[in-house]
Amino acid sequence: ALASMLALAACGGGGEQTSGEADGQATDGGVVKADIGVVSYLSGSGAAYGEAITSGLELALEEINAKGEVEINLIIEDSAGKQDQALTAAQKLMNSENVTALIGPTLSTEMNVVGPEADLNGVPTIGTSTTAEGIPQIGEYIFRNSLPEALAIPASIDKAIEKYDAKKVAILYGNDDVFTKSGFDTMKAAAEEKGLEILTIETFQKGQSDYNAQLTKIKGLNPDLILASALYNEGAVIMDQARKMGIDVPFVGGNGFNSPEVIEIAGDAADGLIVATPWYAEKDDPKVQEFVSKFEEKYGKKPDQFAAQAYDALYIYAEALKNAGSNDRDAFRDALAEVKITGILGDFAFDAEGDVIMTPTVLVIEDGAFKVFE
Ligand code: PYR
To answer: Tell me, which fold does domain 2-146+285-349 have in CATH?
Structure first.
């Protein structure tokens, strides 16, 4: 059976591929069944991203399967935030598990290796948290429903300029990650376009624990604002050390920073962090409030935007499956490109490249909580 599944997978998304192989049926009384592979950052320093994402997916899964229009089986693999592990996990899901489509991986860095392979195999893939430049452009099978940094960062910087009359900025970024590098490029371009003076550009690496050298230099230059492109773990430690050194200016961060983990790790030091978000739990929208209360009931905590984007992504997949009427990879891909739903992120459709256009809301951390930056 394995050999025949591998042979089918080797056809590269040919029309005869079905993921209902296990029971020999893709549909059952009109109900389309599909195995969906999930590659998520579930262990290591960014595990809270994966926990939020898989929680959002599992809540959506219960609701979708209960409706009975489609029947989805999620097969979840941990990538640990690493390119090689993400690729191995995706290959297993595509070739051995013969999934119809993939959700994830979590980081743009991981998608940069998984995306080309999935596209080559003709396996539709949606990133729910991959915000770097160029992700959906990897190929026609690669989509995302996450707010790109190109939309998020300029919105945050505009707000900071408006609120703090910021004129001089320092930039700090991780130079060993696709997302943190891309976020930096966007920050630099936006700062230049808005006429901000860039006092210095400092770098760091994943897992770094001491930012004294970079922060001492930044403090001496006296910026009005610090633009920081980081994942939550490094970002929170940077803010903690900055506040301890007496740097009290606001920070602008990207999607990696848009996690309650920043407040968990940095405590009061996280106050003054500005991020743009596609979604927030306090939104006055009945769909959002229903999701928040169901999530809290199931998991005992409020969902973050990583959970919300994953939740909507599974609804997008369910709609595509229903419309495709089949779990064939190509039929699913074509239906996916055309999906229109109103989810908890609002009205959703992909653009011609499989990317999204969304209007971000800018948040700021005040007194230990994310609040809409009015
Ligand atoms: C990314 O890797 O794209 C994130 O936004 C975390």
So the answer is: Rossmann fold (3.40.50)
